[in-house]
Design goal:
By secondary structure, the protein is an alpha/beta fold. It is built from 16 helices and 18 strands. It has helices spanning 7-18, 25-40, 59-73, 93-104, 140-149, 200-204, 262-273, 322-333, 343-349, 352-359, 371-378, 382-387, 389-400, 435-448, 453-473, 483-501; strands at 3-4, 50-55, 77-82, 108-109, 124-128, 155-159, 184-188, 206-210, 224-226, 250-255, 278-283, 298-301, 311-314, 338-340, 365-367, 403-406, 412-414, 420-422. Strands 1-9-18-17-16-15-14-13-10-11-12 form an eleven-stranded mixed sheet, with helices on both faces. Helix 2 (25-40) packs across helix 3, helix 3 (59-73) packs parallel to helix 4 (93-104) and helix 14 crosses helix 15. It starts with a strand and ends with a helix.
Length: 503
């Protein structure tokens, strides 16, 4: 089910597989897989195709050399810029063999200064400069090369990972680093988390995986996966005819400090449209008499509400007042399922006693921080969170004994036991005010309907992103899409999923 592997995992699999294979077999297979992926991106008449192959000094460059040889054998016009290692004696025998094969082919070797990169109409660039082992930012002439490639108007195929991208974290290597912006990536042995979170989705493009025919026995069970409907489909159930509003649970959205009543309203409307039987919008001050746009909501003052009566979604527009703090303390002390978002997370960040109480809860708990809120909870900077989103989510989940949804490009969902999932749905339309409130209400509704909190978080994040994807496909964004527009799209997506997968 879409497993993801860290660089350390990949190295271990590679070593185990190589011990059972002839020397160089994996590099040859990677080169062939890269060539096959390249051919899929070229015109049908390969003899007219102009392909630029960039081969770096390491084994990723060896993969590129193998791919260049294969492509030239198909008749493509291959120009190869080869960066030899500083010390040839440190080049692997496999890479040396790949270089010999490339030189024996019709690929034309060119020095960087003679390649006329900007003056040629390329059909494809194959990036084999640096693979998963890059630790330092790309600099000097190679940096200029990457910047030039990123200006070319053609498809770019990265071999294994786009050069300059950290395969584990998805961050561009270095504080002022550069990376190849690929349109496609063919990644080898196993899929990598960095291709799907942080900068990964902007730089990796469409990702395909080639396991290089490695036997399944060399793969250990993965603790990290891409999100998939299969993870939560068993909880998608068609509704019984003989049911009533009490069958589908209560949600209480707690927030709405003065001037911020819109946030709990968005969350509450989403909860109602996502199937909760009854939804309360509870305001820390100045409760609305009703929501004219959704009169089915019960609008009340939060003070005095019995928190044992509902699944609690606390934080949207909550503010930082003493009254807000008291409500959060009561919510944490309750035995109800709890989702904490927005201002509830900011209050938690400033109170270690509340954090300890949260970690001691026996009831299901979900936290949905964006990177700044996560940074406050970790007492770090936002740059540190974004530099390693997986570690940040894992740390918070373990420390606070909660399912943590670290929002952003490639949202990370982490559990206290070390499981983690990276979400694949969603797009920049979600980068607007209120979409986090919508996600909170959706997840709260699933919890109220009896979903386990791990599966509720996975499904909510997946559906939230899918609704945005559908709206963009229909022309409603990404620019200017509003959070409220997501709500009916979520309802439609949820019903279609139940029709397709429900029991």
């Amino acid at each position: 089910m879409n497993p993801l592997y860290t660089v350390a995992d990949i190295r271990a699999i590679e070593r185990a597989a190589a011990a059972t294979l002839p020397p160089g077999a994996l590099m040859q297979r990677a080169g062939q897989a890269g060539a096959n992926a390249a051919l899929d991106l070229l015109p049908l008449s390969t003899g007219q195709a102009r392909v630029l192959v960039l081969a770096g000094p390491g084994d990723n460059g060896g993969d590129a050399l193998e791919a260049a040889a294969h492509l030239s054998f198909t008749g493509a016009q291959v120009t190869l810029i080869h960066f030899a290692p500083e010390d040839d004696s440190k080049s692997s025998p496999e890479r040396q063999a790949a270089l010999r094969r490339a030189k024996a082919s019709d690929a034309r070797f060119r020095a960087l200064e003679d390649a006329q990169l900007g003056g040629t109409e390329w059909h494809l660039v194959v990036d084999g400069l640096f693979g998963i082992g890059l630790k330092r930012p790309i600099s000097g002439a190679l940096r200029s090369l990457v910047e030039t490639v990123n200006q070319l108007r053609c498809s770019v195929l990265a071999l294994d990972v786009p050069s300059g991208l950290d395969a584990d974290t998805g961050a561009v290597v270095g504080p002022d680093g550069v990376a190849v912006r690929a349109t496609h990536t063919i990644t080898f042995i196993g899929n990598k988390p960095g291709l799907h979170t942080c900068d990964g989705r902007d730089y990796a493009g469409l990702v395909d995986v080639s396991r290089l025919e490695i036997d399944a026995s060399h793969y250990a069970p993965a603790a990290l996966h891409l999100n998939d409907v299969k993870f939560f489909a068993r909880h998608l159930r068609a509704r019984r005819h003989n049911s009533h509003k009490g069958s589908y649970g209560n949600v209480a959205v707690i927030g709405g400090a003065r001037g911020m009543s819109g946030a709990p309203v968005l969350a509450a409307r989403t909860a109602l449209n996502s199937g909760a039987g009854r939804v309360y919008a509870l305001f820390v001050e100045d409760p609305l008499p009703c929501d004219p746009g959704q009169p089915e909501l019960m609008c009340r003052a939060a003070d005095g509400y019995d928190m044992a009566q509902a699944t609690l979604v606390i934080g949207p527009g909550l503010g930082g007042s003493a009254a807000a703090h008291a409500l959060l303390s009561r919510a944490i002390a309750s035995a109800s399922p709890l989702l904490a978002d927005a201002d509830a997370l900011n209050l938690l960040a400033g109170d270690h006693a509340l954090q300890a109480a949260l970690a001691a809860r026996g009831a299901p708990t979900v936290l949905t921080p964006h990177p700044l809120e996560a940074a406050r909870l970790l007492d770090s900077g936002i740059a540190a969170v974004q530099a390693d989103r997986l570690t940040a989510a894992h740390t918070l989940a373990r420390r606070l004994n909660a399912i943590v949804v670290l929002k952003g490009s490639g949202t990370v969902i982490a559990a206290p036991d070390g499981q983690a999932v990276i979400n694949t749905t969603g797009n920049p339309a979600l980068a607007t005010a209120g979409t986090g409130d919508v996600l909170a209400g959706l997840c709260g509704a699933l919890l109220a309907q009896g979903w386990p909190h791990w599966e509720a978080a996975l499904a909510a994040v997946w559906l939230h992103g899918m609704a945005a994807d559908v709206l963009v496909t229909e022309g409603c964004g990404p620019i200017g899409l509003t959070a409220a527009e997501l709500i009916p799209a979520i309802r439609t997506a949820l019903n279609r999923m139940v029709q397709h997968h429900g029991r």
